[in-house]
Amino acid sequence: MKVKITAMRKSEYPDLMERYERPMENACGMEIGQVFVSENGEKPAGLCESAWESMEQFVKELSSGGGDFFGGWMKDPHSAMISCNDGFRPVSFYLEVVK
User: Fold this and answer.
1) Measuring CA to CA, which residue among 54, 51, 67, 71 is closest to residue 3?
2) SS3 of 56, please?
3) How far is CA 34 from CA 16, 17, 21, 71, in A?
4) C-beta of residue 57 within 8 angstroms of C-beta of residue 41
5) For a designed S-S bond to 61, which of 38, 53, 66, 86 qualifies (C-beta 3.0 to 4.6 A apart)?
6) How far apart are CA 7 and CA 93, in angstroms?
7) What are the strands of the beta sheet with 35-39, ordered from one edge?
8) Separation CA 66–CA 61 (nearest Å)
9) 41-89: per-residue pLDDT in tens?
10) pLDDT tens across 11-51, in order?
11) Rounded Cα distance, 98 and 96, in Å
């Protein structure tokens, strides 16, 4: 099965960045509305490695027909809302099974 991965929201915490982060160029290239498609639970080309590490188990479960995570937290049991683990600029991704 295919799983569509859509970047839904990107937050930034300038106070934390100023206090703790070393200045970086291109720290996060994800754009709101950006779409990736995973086939058979594989990481799509161009998807941030850190984001993939945060969502991989959910994508693999959805691609194998599973879902209904955490006892039904999503309205659509064949979907998930996952955030990457970047503490300075987390991105929320909507994962959904597509045919």
Assistant:
1) 67
2) helix
3) 25, 24, 25, 28
4) no
5) 66
6) 5
7) 35-39, 2-10, 91-98, 79-83
8) 5
9) 999 999 999 899 999 999 999 999 999 998 889 999 999 999 998 999 9
10) 999 999 999 999 877 778 899 999 999 999 999 999 999 89
11) 6
